[in-house]
Amino acid sequence: MPRTSRWSYEHRLLAGLLLVALPALLAFGAAAAFAFDAMWKAAAATAALAAVTLALALALQRRAVFPLYTLSNLLEALREGDYSLRGSRARRGDAVGEVVWEINALAQTLREQRLSVEEKSAQLTKVVAALDIAVLSFDADGYLTLANPAAERLLAQPFAALDGRSAQALGLAGFLAADAARVVEHAFPSGAGRWEIRHSRFRADGRPHDLLVITDLSRALREEERLAWQRLLRVLGHELNNSLAPIRSMAATVSKLIAAEPPPEDWRGDARSGLDVIGDRADALARFMARYTALARLPPPNLREVAFDELARRAARLEQRLDVRVAGPALRAALDPDQIEQALINLVRNAADAALTSGGDVALNWREENGALVTEIVDGGPGLPPSGNLFVPFFTTKPGGSGIGLVLARQIVEQHGGTLALENRADARGCVARLRLPMSAATPN
Hints:
single chain; alpha+beta; Beta-Lactamase; five-stranded mixed β-sheet; 12 helices; elongated; kinase; HATPase_dom; EC 2.7.13.3; His_kinase_dom; histidine kinase
């Protein structure tokens, strides 16, 4: 520890000022002793000069110490978090004024930073409160310090009753023991279901804390399932009505023909035509159900290494209505050739259907890009229709279309671990179907 002086700064300053004046006092006293004929006169003059010197030293001491007290008060205010005080002697070109200027600037900077932090903290608080995901924070000892409204609903208690309770008491200690995100089946006070648990750590006030994020997957899955059923039933209802309406109409017509007395002369031909219509629509329904069964029973891919370039060229040659331009390097890929070829055939057929309506062309190309095998089917057709149901089963915008080509192609690609996306061309009129397979399934030939 450094040694501390018994004298304060003010006393040391006063002593220094007096020491500066001491040689002059001694010289004055010696001169006065020779100049005055009486000793008491010399002593009186010296004492008067010493008094004046002491008074001037005290005045200079106060003048030197007062700004330091001002600076001390400003720094104390900053330490206490009060950034509103400002020093009045802030000016450039002055030693003390420079210090006051910098302290004022520091106070303004700290005020702006605190305001920014408070605004961001308030924003973060509102965001966390608006989340439909439970967020809980625990201190280093495992006691709850934060819970948003979603967490209150999850635990069926207000935060006032949860604050300060341990993770063990809340039944969450097991979730804090794992670091990796996981999906679990668990029963919380608000109900049982399927939950995604994410656990991470952060530091606050120099101590480690735990953050627990719990997402209800059951509700999201139920909502997606409901929407999927609505889309599917809407398309199924449309397809069934298209077949049942003429069947019902023709059945009523044939029933009237048979019941008529006497029957019309051409009743046999009309009845036969009506029965043919009923048979055709019944066959269409049978084909529709067969397509549905094929879509629902798609087997898992049987992966084996094949020459992708040969497979792609073969799929392009099967389109006979126009010439499909093919371009791409020789690649070998680990995939199910039958399924991928079927997906390419469906996509090329759709591209040809679109191109034939506007006299455009079709191109099939592939390449290796960022560790993936990318295949593009580009057409010069009218582009994508304004609909979000392109991948809904049995939805189609083409007369006589089945509505399963795109769905089947995407299902095949996703079972291979890839993606299929449709988008309008940026360089010209038309559409691009982009098929992407992971690099683990594609290697240079």
